[in-house]
Amino acid sequence: MKRLSKTLPSGNVSYLETTGTGPTLLFVHGNSSCAEAFHYQLEHLGCSYRCLALDFLGHGESSPADNASAYSFAGCSEQIIEFIDELQLENVIVVGHSLGGHAIIDALPRLEAIAGVLLVGAPPFNGDTAGEAFLPDPSEGLIFAAELDGDQLTKVAKEFVNEDKLPLSDWISVVKSVDNTHSSVRPGILAGFSEGELQDEVKILQQSGICAMSIVGEQDGFINNDYFNAEPLKAIFGENIFFIDDCHHCPHLEAPEVFNGYLEGFIKQCFPKSITRSLVLNEHKDGDIFIDRYMPLAEPGVGEVMIEVKATSVNPFDYKISRGELPHLAPEHPAVLHSDVAGVVIKVGEQVCEFKPGDKVFGCVGGVKGRQGALTDVMLADRLLLGLMPENLSFKQAAALPMVAITAWEGLEAGDLKAGMKVLVHGGTGGVGHMAVQLAKHMGAEVYATVGSVEKGKLALEMGADGIIHYHTEDVEDYVSRITGGCGFDLVFDTVGNENIPIAMQACTVGGHVVTTLANNKVDLKIASGRRLNLHFINMLWPMLSGREIRAHGEILKQLKPLIEAGKLNPLLDPQSFLFEQAGLAHEFASSGEAVGKVILVNG
């Protein structure tokens, strides 16, 4: 964030600007406040949007005005017009608090660059309705006094913010309400009311036809909240009238998370085609695991595909990231999780010839460091990570496949699988396991699967396993003797990993292959050394994390497609699916161990 300045016809103004490149948001403050009053919004949105926060003349770090009339509604409106013209802003959403809100309304007839107006503690009024819009001044005129002593400042502060939500000292520090406000400002505002003709703000908004939203503190002592029940205001704002609980006159400071949620929703209304909703990890770790964010949608770059996301699925590393267990794998904030996607191509970038708008695609494409994921309405994905969806699958079924099917393929390939080999799959009905069972059987192997229940044993047999092993009741020595005559399996695919790896090695024949998808630093390799085992560690996330060899994943999906269409490979889905809005519940369910098959989330 930068502090900059501009020389306008009205005077020298200071403003804050963030580094985001999305649509422009202009924040204008109220009486005796400054640009820093919007610091929560600038920090939250500044990486995604171009945010500008202006200090009016006489406020913050802007210079004083040459005459007090510049502090009136009309004077502040003139500064907004000059500022927008000077920076050549277009399609701007203006967020105006109190005085700033009224100033932007009054400026609208002379502006063509405004896409939307969000008014904070600023009910639109005219000469006839001013008495209805506002309550008797609870500060008893102090908000228009040239000087305020300590007690008077505290009295004003209590009207502006609920000290149970925000300490008064914090509000005074943030808005710099006395020390950094010129002594002529407040009398100048009052003089503007007395001397100038009030604009008909209701009529201005009605005639503008632009998107409008109003946010008011539910306990705002300056505003008559019942005024918003008037039909003209309902016609202007529609469903966009919000009262934030326990807030006074500065809800953007008192309840920034709630306020920012409304603001992001409003941005989506103003730019419906260029903003997408994503469910991102809640940084604060209180309340829901995921929160809605509305963020600018970038155009697809070279080799990228824009996808309308229809479904995704939960993989173990997804819920481990959401629980904070794998911070080194998490996407950058705001973090959008989920690697698996199924959806429809909206648009393609340069050098994309495999896909076109309207194609149904699936893939394991992101949700890790360096690549945002699929828990969003629209996403960008590397073409090399995608494949055309099998024609016999629904979006739900397709979303269940990419990660587990690619992992199973890579594992069997690493284990040099050949027809006639005896293969053991640990976790035969798990995500990767049920894919490995079906693929190994298709490739001509004799396949056995470990299971933890009678029901899962039936599922494994239905998927093609030649036999099952109940690991709770049969030791490794016993089933190796029973099935292989004590020789061991040619290939053991261990989808459980870690503490199970020694068991997998015990089950393998001399010189055989052990494939695992999860290994910690406590694995004892004595058995592997003694038996001359070939160990293979599969990390299918590595291409996405490193950016290397990613073409292989798309090629695997291409080879899987005819197998799936021929009915040789069928995804196992848990009967319970979730909506995107239930992502937190989906993660809890997937991590509980109760799911049988992949847990699917459907968008819409």
From TrEMBL:
The protein in question is named: Alpha/beta fold hydrolase
Keywords (A to Z) from UniProt: Hydrolase
Keyword Cell wall biogenesis/degradation in the entry? The reply is no
* SUPFAM superfamilies recorded: alpha/beta-Hydrolases, GroES-like, NAD(P)-binding Rossmann-fold domains
Keyword Hydrolase, does the record have it? Answer: yes
Instruction: List the Gene Ontology MF annotations in alphabetical order.
Output: hydrolase activity; oxidoreductase activity
- Could you tell me which SMART domains the record lists for this protein? PKS_ER
Q: Which residues form the Enoyl reductase (ER) domain?
A: 287-601
An example of a Pfam family matching this protein is Abhydrolase_6
This protein's species is Thalassomonas actiniarum
